[in-house]
Inverse folding.
C-alpha cells in the first residue's frame, strides 16, 4: 500500500514566501506536507536533529554556505536528499550543486518542475528507507537463524540445489569435522551412502516444492571410518538469504528422566548391536500382532538363517560367528518396513512378522533381502566374509491366530530351502487332498452366494495421492464380504474360491453398482474399479453397463476400470474390444500390476489406456536398489511416451515415496497414504 503519512519538510530560507510557495505547490500536487521553517544556517543542526525531515530545501547561494549546509546535513541527517533554491537556474548552478552533494536545484517560479523534483526525491528517499529497513530485518533474521542453529542441539544443515550452504556445530560434530570449511559448498550427497541418494534427491525436490509434510527420511551416512551411520532426516522448506532452500534436521535424543526410563526399558528388549528384538520380546510382540485381525493384505512369518552355519562356525570360531550374526541382524534391520517386527529367536536364526499387500509383494521383498545379504561383504574382525541365507515363510490367519504354528512352519520351510542348496526362499507346504479342496471351494461358494443375496458385501476406499500438481479426489475401491456374524472377510480369503467357482462376475457387478452409487453421492474426480478375467471375457458387460449408467445417472468419466496385466496380456483381443466399449461410453481404463510381466510395454502398443498402476512388488526394496529404480523409471518413461498417467501401488514408507518423486511417478497409493482403509458405502 502507498505511504499516505504527512511528508516532513525542512526549508532553510530567510524568505517566508519560499515556505508558502513550496507548501502550496506540493499540496496542489496531492502531497500532504508539514513544513518546518529554519531562518538561519546556524539553526539547521537543531532542527534536523529534532524533526527528522524527509526532504530539505535550502536557499543558499555562495559555495561556502552550500558546503556548510551540506556538512550539517551529513552530520545530523545523512540520508535525506537536499534540493537547492535559486531565483535563476543555469547549467553551472546545477553542476556545482550536484558536485557539492545536493540532489537538484529548483526555481520556485516553475511549479511543475518543483513538483516533479520533490515527488522524485521523496519516492527515492522512501525506497531507500524501506530497503534499509528490509536489510536491517534480514540481518536481524540472519542473526536469529545463526543463533538458533548455533544453540540447537539438533544437527542442522541448510541446502540449496543440493549444495550445503550452512551448518551448525552439532552437524559439524556429527560428521566428524573440526569446522564448517570442509562442508560448506560441498554436495550434500557426498555425506551419504549411494543407496540413500535416490530417496534423498526425491525428498529434497518435494521439500523445495513445499510438498514434504513431516515425513521422516531414513538414510545411511558415509563416515570417514567407512562404517555405516543410520540417520533419520527431517526436511522443511525455508528461505536462505532470499532464495529457496531446504533445512535438514537430525533430532537429538532428549535426555530427560522419561526418555532415560524409556531407553532403559528398550535396552532390556532390544539387542544393542543389531537393533533386533531379543527372543522373548519378539515372541511377545509378534504374538500380540498375530492375534489381531488383518485390515488388508496378508500377514506372514519369515525365518532367515545363514546357509552352512556349522561350517561358518567351524571356520570363524564361536566368537567371530556371533559377530557375523550381529552384522547380519543389522543388515536385516535396515531393510524392514514400518510395522514389521523382527527379532533374533535363536543362535543362528532371525524371525520376522510382516504385513504386505499380497504374496507377490512379500516374495519380492524377501528376494531383495536375500540378494542384499549375498552381495554384501561382512567385515568380521580382520576377515572379509560373504554368506548366503535361506528363508522360509508361512501365512498367518487373517482373523488372528497363535504364532507358534506359523513360526514352526516357517522354520521347517527354511530347513527345506537350505537343504536344496540355499540362497533361496520356500513357503510352507500344506498337504491338502483334492476332495477336501473341492469341498472347501463349494463351502466358500455357498457363503459367497448367501452374502450376495443378503447384501453382505461392502466397499472400502483407499485414497490415491498426487505427487504432481494439485491434489485430486481419487480412490481405489476394494470389496469386503461380511460373514454371518457381521465380521469382515478379506479378499485374500474368498476371491480365489470365487474365481474357481465362477462367481467373480457376480461380485464384479455388485462392486460396479456400488461404485456408481458412490460416484453419484460423493462425486469424486475418479474411482478405480477392478474387473476380473471373467468380466473381461463377458460379452454382456457392455449392455449391462449402459443400463446402469442410465439408471444411476452417474457421470461415467468418474470411473476407471482396471484390469490386471497378466489378464490383459493373455486376453489381448478381448481387452481391445473392452477398451473400445468403455471409451465409447465415457469410462476410463487402466492396467494394474504393470511391470510384472517380461514385456509390459507390448500392451501399450496395442491398447490405449488412461492409467498404469506400477506393480506393488516393484516397490519392495526400491529405496536402496538402483537396478530396481532403473526398471521402474523405464516403465514411467514408457507410460510418458504414450501420455499415460502412472500410479505406484502399495507404497508403504517415506523413502519409497521420495524415490518415486525422483522417478517421475504421478500418483501413489498404499497404507503410507492412508491406513487403515475406511468403509464408505454399503449398498
Amino acid at each position: 500500500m502507498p505511504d499516505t503519512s504527512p511528508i516532513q519538510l525542512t526549508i532553510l530560507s530567510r524568505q517566508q514566501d519560499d515556505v508558502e510557495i513550496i507548501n502550496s505547490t506540493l499540496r496542489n500536487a496531492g502531497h500532504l506536507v508539514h513544513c518546518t521553517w529554519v531562518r538561519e544556517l546556524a539553526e539547521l543542526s537543531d532542527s534536523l536533529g529534532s524533526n527528522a525531515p524527509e526532504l530539505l530545501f535550502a536557499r543558499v547561494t555562495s559555495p561556502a554556505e552550500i558546503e556548510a549546509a551540506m556538512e550539517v546535513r551529513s552530520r545530523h541527517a545523512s540520508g535525506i536528499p537536499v534540493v537547492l533554491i535559486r531565483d535563476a537556474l543555469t547549467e553551472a548552478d546545477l553542476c556545482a550543486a550536484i558536485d557539492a552533494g545536493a540532489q537538484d536545484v529548483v526555481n520556485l517560479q516553475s511549479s511543475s518542475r518543483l513538483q516533479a523534483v520533490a515527488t522524485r526525491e521523496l519516492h527515492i528517499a522512501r525506497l531507500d528507507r524501506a530497503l534499509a529497513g528490509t536489510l536491517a530485518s534480514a540481518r536481524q533474521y540472519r542473526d536469529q537463524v545463526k543463533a538458533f542453529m548455533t544453540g540447537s542441539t539438533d544437527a542442522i544443515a541448510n541446502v540449496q540445489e543440493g549444495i550445503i550452504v550452512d551448518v551448525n556445530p552439532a552437524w559439524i560434530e556429527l560428521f566428524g569435522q573440526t569446522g564448517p570449511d570442509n562442508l560448506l559448498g560441498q554436495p550434500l550427497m557426498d555425506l551419504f551412502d549411494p543407496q540413500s541418494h535416490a530417496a534423498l534427491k526425491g525428498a529434497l525436490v518435494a521439500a523445495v516444492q513445499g510438498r514434504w509434510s513431516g515425513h521422516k527420511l531414513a538414510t545411511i551416512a558415509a563416515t570417514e571410518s567407512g562404517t555405516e551411520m543410520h540417520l533419520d532426516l527431517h526436511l522443511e522448506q525455508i528461505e536462505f538469504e532470499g532464495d529457496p532452500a531446504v533445512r535438514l534436521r537430525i533430532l537429538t535424543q532428549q535426555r530427560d528422566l522419561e526418555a532415560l526410563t524409556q531407553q532403559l526399558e528398550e535396552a532390556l528388549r532390544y539387542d544393542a548391536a543389531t537393533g533386533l528384538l531379543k527372543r522373548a520380546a519378539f515372541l511377545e510382540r509378534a504374538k500380540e500382532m498375530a492375534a489381531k485381525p488383518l485390515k488388508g493384505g496378508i500377514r506372514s512369518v519369515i525365518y532367515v538363517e545363514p546357509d552352512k552355519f556349522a561350517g561358518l562356525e567351524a571356520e570363524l570360531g564361536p566368537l567371530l560367528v556371533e559377530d557375523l550374526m550381529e552384522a547380519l541382524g543389522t543388515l536385516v534391520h535396515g531393510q524392514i518396513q514400518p510395522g514389521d517386527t523382527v527379532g533374533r529367536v535363536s543362535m543362528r536364526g532371525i524371525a520376522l512378522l510382516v504385513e504386505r499387500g499380497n504374496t507377490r509383494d512379500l516374495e519380492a521383498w524377501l528376494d531383495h533381502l536375500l540378494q542384499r545379504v549375498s552381495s554384501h561383504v561382512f567385515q568380521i574382525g580382520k576377515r572379509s566374509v560373504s554368506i548366503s541365507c535361506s528363508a522360509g515363510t508361512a501365512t498367518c490367519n487373517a482373523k488372528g491366530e497363535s504364532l507358534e504354528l506359523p513360526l514352526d512352519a516357517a522354520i521347517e520351510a527354511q530347513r527345506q530351502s537350505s537343504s536344496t542348496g540355499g540362497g533361496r526362499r520356500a513357503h510352507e507346504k500344506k498337504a491338502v487332498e483334492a476332495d477336501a479342496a473341492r469341498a472347501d471351494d463349494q463351502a466358500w461358494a455357498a457363503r459367497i452366494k448367501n452374502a450376495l443375496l443378503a447384501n453382505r458385501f461392502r466397499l472400502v476406499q483407499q485414497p490415491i495421492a498426487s505427487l504432481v500438481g494439485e491434489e485430486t479426489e481419487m480412490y481405489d475401491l476394494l470389496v469386503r464380504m461380511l460373514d454371518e456374524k457381521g465380521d469382515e472377510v478379506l479378499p485374500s480369503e474368498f476371491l480365489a474360491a470365487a474365481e474357481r467357482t465362477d462367481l467373480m462376475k457376480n461380485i464384479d457387478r455388485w462392486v460396479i453398482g456400488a461404485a456408481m452409487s458412490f460416484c453419484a453421492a460423493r462425486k469424486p474426480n475418479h474411482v478405480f474399479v477392478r474387473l476380473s478375467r471373467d468380466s473381461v471375457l463377458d460379452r454382456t458387460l457392455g449392455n449391462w453397463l449402459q443400463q446402469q449408467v442410465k439408471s444411476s445417472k452417474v457421470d461415467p468419466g468418474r470411473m476407471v476400470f482396471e484390469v490386471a496385466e497378466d489378464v490383459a496380456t493373455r486376453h489381448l483381443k478381448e481387452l481391445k474390444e473392452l477398451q473400445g466399449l468403455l471409451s465409447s461410453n465415457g469410462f476410463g481404463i487402466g492396467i494394474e500390476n504393470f511391470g510384472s510381466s517380461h514385456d509390459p510395454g507390448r500392451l501399450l502398443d496395442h491398447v490405449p489406456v488412461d492409467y498404469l498402476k506400477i506393480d506393488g512388488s516393484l516397490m519392495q526394496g526400491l529405496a536402496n536398489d538402483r537396478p530396481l529404480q532403473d526398471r521402474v523409471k523405464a516403465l514411467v518413461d514408457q507410460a510418458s511416451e504414450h501420455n499415460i498417467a502412472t500410479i505406484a501401488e502399495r507404497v508403504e514408507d517415506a523413502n519409497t515415496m521420495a524415490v518415486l518423486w525422483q522417478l517421475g511417478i504421478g500418483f501413489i497409493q498404499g497404507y503410507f497414504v492412508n491406513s487403515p482403509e475406511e468403509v464408505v458405502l454399503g449398498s
Observations:
- Residues 93 and 105 are 8 Å apart (CA to CA).
- The first strand starts at residue 7 and ends at 12.
- Residues 111-151 form the longest helix (41 residues).
- The chain is about 45% helix and 20% strand.
